[in-house]
Design brief:
It contains 10 helices and 12 strands. It is an alpha/beta fold. The strands form 2 sheets. A 6-stranded mixed β-sheet has the order 3-2-1-11-12-9. A 6-stranded mixed β-sheet has the order 4-5-6-10-7-8, with no helix packed on it. It is globular.
Length: 281
C-alpha cells in the first residue's frame, strides 16, 4: 500500500493529523508529491517531518520558488515565500545574497552573523539540501510521480473538469502519451481522476474509493494536505492498493483555528491564506 501526500504548505497541524491517520493504515511507502512549504506558518517542522517520514519526495512549485524566487506568484504567495526564505535559508545563502547586493568586503549584519546556534545552522543546512535536491519527477515501473504534470512536472496545472474552460484536449493527450499506466500528481489541490477519454471522477462520486482498470491510463490527483480547495476543509491524502488497483482518498480533520492564528500573525489579520482554510477553498 502506498500513501500519497502533497501540497502540505507548511501546515503542521494538518500534516501531523495525516501522518497519524497513515499510521493506522497498512502503508508500506509514503510518497510526497511536493509543495512542503508556502502559504503556511511552519515550514521548518513540516520539512523535518517530510524528510523523516517520506520514502520519496518531489519538488513542488513553492519549494522551487523558495530556492529560486517566486516568479509569477500572486503578491500574498510571494510574500510568504519571502518570509519562509528568511526563516529557512542557511547563513551562507543569506551572506552570499547580502554581499552580492552590497559593496565587496562590507561587514555582514549581526542578524546574519549570529542568527542561529551551530546546531540550528546544521539543521538549516540539512533542510536546504533536502529541498534543493528534490527531483522534479520519478518513475516506478508503470507508475509516474510528478507535482504538476507529466509534460511540465513542477508548474503546469491539470485542472479537473469543473474548470474545463482551461482544458486543452490535445495537451492532455500528450500527457497520456508520456505515462505507462498511472501518473500521480498534486498542485491543483483538487482530488480527482482524469481518464484518456477526458472523463473526470471525484472522490465523493464513489464514496472516496475508486476501482481503476489495469488496461487504461489515468491522471490521479491526491488532493492537498495543508490547503484543500474542493470545499472540504479537512486534510486530504490518497492510499493506493496497487495489487487490487484501488484508490482511497482519506479526509482528516485538524485544528484549523490554531493554524489560522499563526498565519494571521505571519501575514496580518484575516488574510486569505488563513481564512480559506475554514472553507476549503
Amino acid at each position: 500500500m502506498k500513501a500519497f501526500i502533497s501540497d502540505i504548505h507548511a501546515n503542521l497541524e494538518a500534516l501531523k493529523s495525516v501522518f497519524k491517520d497513515i499510521d493506522s493504515q497498512h502503508v508500506d511507502e509514503i510518497i510526497c508529491l511536493g509543495d512542503v512549504v508556502g502559504y503556511g506558518p511552519d515550514p521548518e517542522p513540516c520539512t523535518d517531518l517530510v524528510m523523516s517520514r517520506s520514502d520519496i519526495a518531489l519538488m513542488g512549485n513553492h519549494d522551487y520558488a523558495l530556492l529560486h524566487g517566486p516568479l509569477s506568484f500572486n503578491p500574498i504567495a510571494a510574500e510568504v515565500i519571502r518570509i519562509t526564505r528568511e526563516k529557512m535559508a542557511p547563513a551562507r545563502i543569506k551572506a552570499a545574497e547580502y554581499l552580492s547586493a552590497t559593496e565587496s568586503g562590507q561587514e555582514l549584519p549581526s542578524s546574519i552573523q549570529a542568527a542561529r546556534s551551530h546546531k540550528e545552522e546544521q539543521q538549516a543546512e540539512q533542510r536546504w539540501h533536502f529541498l534543493e535536491t528534490l527531483p522534479a519527477s520519478l518513475k516506478d515501473n508503470n507508475l509516474s510521480y510528478v507535482h504538476a504534470s507529466p509534460l511540465e512536472p513542477i508548474h503546469e496545472y491539470i485542472f479537473p473538469d469543473i474548470y474545463s474552460q482551461w482544458w486543452q484536449p490535445e495537451r492532455i493527450q500528450l500527457m497520456f502519451e508520456k505515462i505507462d499506466w498511472l501518473v500521480f500528481c498534486g498542485h491543483t489541490h483538487y482530488p480527482c481522476v482524469i481518464t484518456e477519454s477526458m472523463d473526470c471522477y471525484y472522490p465523493q462520486d464513489s464514496g472516496n474509493i475508486l476501482q481503476i482498470e489495469k488496461d487504461r491510463k489515468y491522471i490521479i490527483n491526491d488532493g492537498s494536505v495543508g490547503q484543500p480547495r474542493d470545499r472540504d476543509n479537512r486534510a486530504c491524502y490518497l492510499l493506493f492498493d496497487e495489487q487490487n488497483a484501488k484508490l482511497e482518498w482519506r479526509r482528516v480533520g485538524y485544528n484549523i483555528e490554531s493554524v489560522k492564528k499563526k498565519v494571521d500573525k505571519m501575514c496580518g489579520e484575516d488574510n486569505w491564506c488563513g481564512v480559506r482554510l475554514r472553507f476549503g477553498r
